[in-house]
Please model this.
Amino acid sequence: MNNTVWLIDDDASIRESMAFLLSGMGWAVKTFDSVDAFTAQHGGEKALTGCLLLDMRMPGKGGLAWLEEEEWPWPLLPVIIMTGHGTVDACRRAFRNGVFEFFTKPLDADRLIETVGLAFEESQRRFSAWQEAMRITARFAELTAREREVLSVLMEGCSNKEAAARLGLSPRTVEAHRAAAFAKLGVSSLVQAIREYDKLPSV
Model:
């Protein structure tokens, strides 16, 4: 995973100074002068990682208003809000919308660098969890409809015999579907299968 800072600010001097500061830490910095410019290039990249530095107020669509529009489409990307007009209400609104940190301009360079580093760690944590969820999702997708049905009944606490009676199958057939499901999921017990199932991302 690359440590990239995505910087959105309409002030060219701020973009230039912050890009200079952050690139000096060895981080890649991509700058944009508006929300629209960022979404035009990266709107379809749901797995975007790194850290987003976002100005709260800009001509057109401001950062905070953007966050409040709809569900955030980049779940792996922590957002740091920056503003020259910080208020308690704005801070509360930002954190209600999942913002990682809230800064008032002029920015404290040392604190910003520290926070960006923490945001990268958070993005890495989210990325690892996302990879694990995709792995499990792919394994469950390999199950046949009957294997999923059998596994679902067994996870409710039914025995093979009880599952067979409910599904109109023989216990031997239930056992065969159970074994096939376990093999595809890479587990050796029902407890392990349940643990994997519980990691599936909610729809």
